[in-house]
Amino acid sequence: MFLCRFFTGAAMAYLAAGSLLYWREFLVNTASFGLPLAVPSAFALAGAELFLGLFLMLGLFTRLCALAALPLCAVCAVVFFAGGYNNVFVALCLLQCAPLSVLLLLGPGAVSLDYKRSQRAAGRFLRG
To answer: Which distant-in-sequence residues (6+ apart) come within 8 Å of 59 by Cβ?
Structure first.
């Protein structure tokens, strides 16, 4: 689980860093899609993806981050590539969604900041 979290979070942080490095194009693409308040929306999308990636790498609030990252990665990818779909783009989106789904279902794993809290929550849930 550690490797799944680490590499998924690193990929998300890398994509968010790309959005922030090429911020002009990201802002133009955000405005072209008609999102309200294009500048704050673009920086909120990229910042949220960056922090969700960092939280996943650390193993903090893993299930919540994976749940939020599933639609956020798709939205950021569509905005970054300006709707230019091809087979590789669809494959990369699916490859990003697969480990996020695994993290959503299985949780943080033993090597995480969230392990003790998730064990307590699972114990309360299984007690009935």
So the answer is: 2, 5, 108, 109, 111, 112, 113, 114, 115
Residue type, 102: V
Note every long-range contact of 63-72, with CB atoms under 8 Å and residues 24 or more positions apart, other chains counting: 63/103, 63/104, 63/107, 63/108, 63/118, 65/103, 66/100, 66/101, 66/103, 66/104, 67/104, 69/12, 69/100, 70/97, 70/100, 70/101, 70/104, 72/45, 72/48
Q: Answer positive or negative: Cα dihedral of 31, 37, 39, 41.
A: negative
For residue 104, what are the domain limits? 2-127
pTM confidence score: 0.79
pLDDT in tens, 26-64: 888 888 888 788 888 888 888 999 999 999 999 888 888
**Total domains present in the chain:** 1
Contact 73, 15 (CB under 8 A): yes
